[in-house]
Amino acid sequence: MAHKFVIKKDKAGEFRVNFVYNSEIIFATEGYSSKASAQNAIDSIKKNGPGAPTDDQTV
Q1: Structural domain of residue 13, as residue ranges?
Q2: What are the pLDDT digits (tens) for 1-59?
Q3: 32 lies in a domain?
Q4: How far is CA 52 from CA 19, 30, 47, 49, in A?
């Protein structure tokens, strides 16, 4: 699989989620105090992301 969510703990002890495609970080979340909160962020992205509109602010 070329894409995946990666949960990591940063230097401050917070959990962060990276969405990685072909070994490149496409986006990262804010820091969360618990791993469960980071997993909730992933679940929310999976649930709500496919229907999200595109806001093209270049026009």
Answers
A1: 3-48
A2: 689 999 999 999 999 999 999 999 999 999 999 999 999 999 999 999 989 999 999 98
A3: yes
A4: 16, 19, 10, 5
Q: How many domains does the chain have?
A: 1
Please give the structure tokens belonging to residue 21: 């495609």
pTM over cut 0.85: no
Query: What span, in angstroms and rounded, lies between the C-alpha atoms of 58 and 4?
Result: 29
Within 1-59, strands assigned E span 3-9, 15-21, 24-28
Cβ-contact 19, 8 below 8 angstroms = no
| Contact in structure between 33 and 47 (CB atoms under 8 Å) | no
Cα(15)–Cα(2) distance, integer angstroms: 22
Q: Which CATH number fits the domain that encloses residue 35?
A: 3.30.160.160
